[in-house]
Amino acid sequence: MKPVNIGVLGLGTVGSGVVNILHRNALEIARRAGREIRVTHAVARNFDRSRLGGIDEINITQDPMDLVTHPEVDIVVELFGGIDLPKQLVLDAIEHGKHVVTANKALIATYGNEIFHAAQKKGVMVAFEAAVAGGIPIIKAVREGLTANRIEWLAGIINGTGNFILTEMREKGRDFEDVLKEAQVLGYAEADPTFDIDGTDAAHKLTILASIAFGIPLQYDKVYKEGINKITREDVFYAEQFGYRIKHLGISKDTEAGIELRVHPTLIPERRLIANVDGVMNAVLVHGDAVGPTLYYGAGAGSEPTGSAVVADIVDVVRVMTTDPENRVPHLAFQPDALSEKPIADMEDIETAYYLRMDAVERPGVLAEVTGIFADSEISIEAIRQQEPAEGATHVPIVFLTHTVKERAMNEAIRKIEALDSIDGTVTRIRVEHLGG
Asked: Considering the chain, what is the average pLDDT of its residues?
């Protein structure tokens, strides 16, 4: 049978991983796909040929349109990153009748609805397993493996940089800024780490996961996101004292108020498996009504872990290239005309427990003032920890854990607490999720 020709847009970290895997495992992959798969074309600038085996067999160009429109290229693999140029190239590839594989989470989260619609019209596939959690096959697991289930909620550590920072803060008692600098030196964080630490990267991935889990259109603009840059080593310490660990989670739930889409630091019980996922590793916990909780763990980034997911997508595309487009697995798990119009929940309508830390003036009656505000707001307190003040200190930290309450009520209570003359500065608030079965 005729080999399938692959064109790769970008031969950076992931692109080189893809080519090397296809070259190294060519026979094994052909046995699984039923056809030989070979990289025949690639786009690269300032490319180091020593990074690839079999590079002499690949036609290298600097013009992406040469690859996207080439009549011999069957599948276009987009690994450029960014949004605007990749969007145009992907749409051009689809228009020329080519299947597309991409690892670009920002592209799918932002323009996926448009891209999938174009692909459906042309009868081609767009595969994007590598866009979420690197080498973990979470897209396939939710879209196909859990297809019998009504997904109730999911929660994931889906950014390795943030997880590395929080792990180092917990294990070594280091400050955020100190660990961030090391993450940049080690290559875990970019020179501009904003997307990793402010939640943007995780929000892109959560958008995709939630769409597949709940059968809703991609709606990145409605994700609530909060970063980890305000987490202190004191917060990490207090969380441990209460039996919790702080993780930066993407969380989505199907509730009466709508679909929750939120990314933020979260306290989770240290006994949970996901609480013990450390370093740059990723993990996603998915709860289905039939199967219960399932956990998916592995490398969330890197040349070959992410390349592994890209190659798996390529094999999937090859397997179905000759099938009726109407009988393929839908891009977002649900048939395009069956996507739900259920709204995205307002953040103030979510219900969760809370960790609150505040600096109080060292004088009698302050604790009563704060707990009085909680009582008026019908907020139930689970635990309180008040540190002994250092000698000569005028302020003392007080930490609360609350029971579940609506965010709206907690916002109002925090406003009242911060208005007290006995409380210095702002209240640190971290949401608490138990993630029980």
From this structure: 94
Q: In this model, does residue 47 exceed pLDDT 80? A: no
- List, as one string, the DSSP characters of 135-191: TS-HHHIIIIITTTS-EEEEEEE--HHHHHHHHHHHHH---HHHHHHHHHHHTSS-S
Rounded Cα–Cα distance for residues 206 and 264 (Å): 12
DSSP secondary structure code for residue 195 in this structure = H
Cα 323 to Cα 319: distance, rounded to the nearest angstrom: 8
- What is the CA angle 117-123-124, rounded to 5? 85
| Residue closest to 331 by CA, chosen among 100, 69, 152 | 100
Q: How many helices (H) and strands (E) does the chain have?
A: 14, 17
Q: Which CATH class is domain 347-432?
A: alpha beta
In DSSP terms, 352 is beta-bridged to: 405
pLDDT digits (tens, 9 = 90+) for 2-13: 999 999 999 998
Strand partners of residue 428:
357
Q: Counting Cβ atoms within 10 Å, is residue 309 exposed (0-12), middle (13-18) or buried (19+)?
A: buried
At residue 337, the 3 state secondary structure works out as helix
296-300, 393-397, 429-433: segment of lowest average pLDDT: 393-397
CATH for the stretch 138-299? 3.30.360.10
Looking at residue 387, the DSSP 8-state letter turns out to be: P
Out of 77-81, 216-220, 388-392, least confident range: 388-392
Distance CA 359, CA 405 (A): 23
**Average confidence (pLDDT) over 393-415:** 95
Residue 16 · residue 52 · CB < 8 Å? yes
Please tell me the pTM assigned to this model: 0.95
CA pair distance 373, 379, nearest whole angstrom: 9
From 140-144, 317-321, 374-378, the region with the lowest mean pLDDT: 317-321
- For residue 258, give the 3-state DSSP assignment: strand
CATH assignment, 4-136+303-335: 3.40.50.720
Per-residue pLDDT band for 54 (boundaries 50, 70, 90) equals low
> Which residues are CB-contacts of 324 (< 8 A; sequence separation ≥ 6)?
none
Q: Determine which helix (DSSP H) or strand (DSSP E) holds 207, and give its type and residue range.
A: helix 200-214
Residue 45 confidence (pLDDT)? 79
404-284-15-183 Cα dihedral, nearest 10 degrees: 60
CA distance 310 to 315: 9
User: Domain ranges in the chain?
Assistant: 4-136+303-335, 138-299, 347-432
Active site residues per annotation: 205
As given in the structure block, the two tokens for residue 85 are 């140029």
